[in-house]
Design a protein that fits this description.
about 475 residues; alpha/beta; eight-stranded mixed β-sheet; three-stranded antiparallel β-sheet; 15 helices; about 40% helix; globular
Length: about 475
Amino acid sequence: MSGSIPTGRVANLVGDVPSPAFSGLATRLASVIADGLLPLDQRLPSERDLATALGLSRTTVTRAYGMLREAGYAAARQGSGTWTRVPGGPARGHDRALLPQPDRASTMDLSCAAPAAVPGLASAYAAAAAALPAYLTGHGYFPLGLPELREAIADRYRRRGLPTSSDQVLVTSGAIAAIAAAAQALLGPGDRVLVESPVYPNAVTSLRRAGARVVAVPVDPDGWDLDAMEASLRQAAPRAAYLIPDYQNPTGLLMDDAQRDRLGAALARSRTVAIVDESHADLHLEQLPVPAPMAAHSSSAITIGGSSKAFWGGLRVGWLRVPDGRQQLFTRARLGLDLGAPILEQLVLTELLTGPDGDAHQQRARLRAQRDALASALAERLPEWRFRIPAGGLSLWCELPRPVAAALAVECERRGLVITPGSVFAPEGGLASFVRLPYTRPEADLRTAVDVLHTAWTALDGQHDVADPVRILIA
């Protein structure tokens, strides 16, 4: 959505302008645009207004705007001023190969629950690039991760009340790679693994590739059925349990400390190792007490983390936190996948975790506003749909009045909107009355998406469900 950026906001972001002033101002403006602190397709203040706010001459601002346009971070519109942009335009940053109709440029994708980059990411990459030469004289392999990154991750656990040394942290090429390493370390052909249903489907794929037999336990829209989980642990005696207690994907549920304590005791009785996915753990959107990590309730738990949800999907760095004494087993499994995550990305994540926005509060503020916008639009346009507003995570888990989620997905695709029916998250089938709707796009896009959903839902009146549309789910 186009508009104007207040002069005061631009002046605050620019701060003190280094000399020479015209190039210093251009550099500062390019930096805040690249970092997402100034949105795209917005009109910058007039040269006169910005000059007054910064105490510079109008000529200086004119030259800075000219440099900004030459670098591709602004464009002039006849009679309308100077507008923000990025070199090449925003379309360059989108790969449409995973969409059902990749050649359809107008398609809006709500199948991917991954937000845009956190403000400040471009600066973190610049700082990482400046630090990179120190590593270029070596072979470049850090199979377990850079020591400084492992320490930064360990410190995050310590600050959450879970004693952790850097030796317990193994860095991977994303959270899915961490799940695959855990499966390789713990599972053999035929081993049973308990999973929640609904559940993150890519994790189930990794577990099955390791030869595991999946045992699904339902998770209700309002919470976990711990009686059913305890019964399944007793009866199936699974080798491992894949759990998402922190803003469960896709339901957004958060398991409290009492529930974690009870589940941890049940896991111990059945000698089941928990593989705990904390990819969404940093995405708390309300001022509520944050439970202790599941590993504080289950000493044998293996914890999965990653950077893609809190910071950016393109930052492919994840990690494992393993119990002390089990490092060798997981090191062997981790080395069976690859020889380490890219050094530059590890340096970027170190910058982010140790910087002022290490808890991704700017990302959380943006997601909170987008969540509320999506929930408000759904309540207004589709009041018969049921959903709860999650205290964190990335999506709404919506229950339809009748089981036609797959048909709705097909109808939406015809109208340029890609959504994911609940059956994709059901390891043993079902969930035909549910859809997952991420709130990871701008508020205006989400309101447009709800308009399409309303039109598609109305068109489905009296229709039955259809076979699930084929799609590749990545997040």
